[in-house]
Design goal:
The protein is of the alpha/beta class. It contains 9 helices and 15 strands.
Length: 322
């Protein structure tokens, strides 16, 4: 089978296609033929060395495909089943993967492999952020950074489903239009005074929550935009890691909450994984939410996909198609 590997840290050019033996599932595992897999900033961080992994490494957290073989003791799925996954060990940049059977989720009729791969990671992330990290209540005002990205567009839609007023932040006119089309009530440019605009829109109160996947470049403005006892959910760092924060800053901002959540901790067991993924996939199948696939690339063009993602010119979800 073909895989894409990283043998040395560096730019997108270090991604190389290789041939490896087909994997064989062990006890509790399944072998899956990959039909589509996602391209994420996590993969960029693994490639660059920001997230250290033993080399060589095959990037890729999420995907969808068909179960080809099952190991001993597997009861969750069977050969021929359509499944999707988000697996923190990586390895999805491949024609075949071996996964823990308990971490796969069924793909319902009416959802394509590309859609399933496109929504698994970002959709469940948007779900836990809006339903658990800060459980949006009707009438809340929330801020969504990078609102035209893969997570951002879904965050806007799920926040609207929960009855929020959404203030979206997007960097260029085309992305601002996408955020508005997803349902955002107000769309701001990053150059604007975020805290001032949010307070102007909320009669001085501030936002109930800020969903920030950008990190270093937006952190201060995010913190300043919160209402007393508001929540800053820092779920990514596409602009770099945030410097250490003195707890007194949270007091001065209004006894606010700062959290750095991770999907792994919000899909802690199979029941939670199936519940969260199942709801997102049903919404997609029923047309309740819309998924934007911003680009499709052949597996061997992973370097091109990474360069596109890092350019910040893309919107929605990028996929590799083996």
């Amino acid at each position: 089978m073909r895989v894409v590997t990283v043998r040395e840290h560096g730019g997108s050019e270090v991604l190389r296609a290789e041939i490896r033996p087909d994997p064989v599932p062990g006890p509790g595992e399944v072998a899956v033929a990959v039909r589509a897999c996602g391209v994420n900033f996590h993969d960029v961080y693994v490639r660059s060395g920001l997230y250290p992994r033993p080399l060589p490494v095959v990037p890729g957290l999420d995907g969808a495909g068909v179960v080809e073989a099952v190991g001993t003791g597997v009861t969750e799925v069977g050969a021929g089943d359509r499944v999707a996954w988000v697996d923190g060990t990586g390895g999805s940049y491949a024609e075949r993967v071996v996964l823990p059977a308990a971490r796969t989720v069924p793909v319902p009729d009416g959802v394509s492999f590309e859609q399933a791969a496109g929504v698994a990671l970002q959709g469940m992330t948007a779900h836990y952020l809006t339903h658990d990290t800060y459980r949006i209540e009707r009438g809340d005002t929330v801020v969504v950074h990078a609102a035209a990205g893969g997570v951002g567009l879904l965050l806007v839609q799920l926040a609207k489903l929960r009855g929020a007023t959404v203030v979206a932040v997007a960097s260029v006119p085309d992305k601002m239009r996408l955020a508005a089309a997803a349902g955002a009530d107000h769309v701001l440019h990053p150059s604007e005074d975020l805290a001032g605009r949010v307070r102007g829109l909320t009669a001085g109160a501030g936002a109930a929550a800020v969903y920030d996947g950008v990190g270093r470049a937006t952190f201060d403005a995010s913190l300043a935009s919160l209402r007393p006892r508001g929540t800053l959910a820092l779920f990514g760092q596409s602009s770099g890691f945030v410097a250490p924060v003195a707890p007194q800053r949270l007091n001065e901002a209004g006894s606010v909450y700062l959290t750095r959540p991770n999907l792994v901790h919000y899909t802690a067991d199979r029941a939670e994984l199936l519940g969260r993924a199942g709801q997102v996939l049903r919404w997609l199948a029923d047309g309740v939410i819309d998924l934007r696939i911003g680009g499709r690339y052949a597996l061997g063009a992973a370097a091109t996909a990474h360069a596109a993602l890092e350019s910040r010119r893309t919107s929605g979800k990028l996929l590799l198609i083996p």
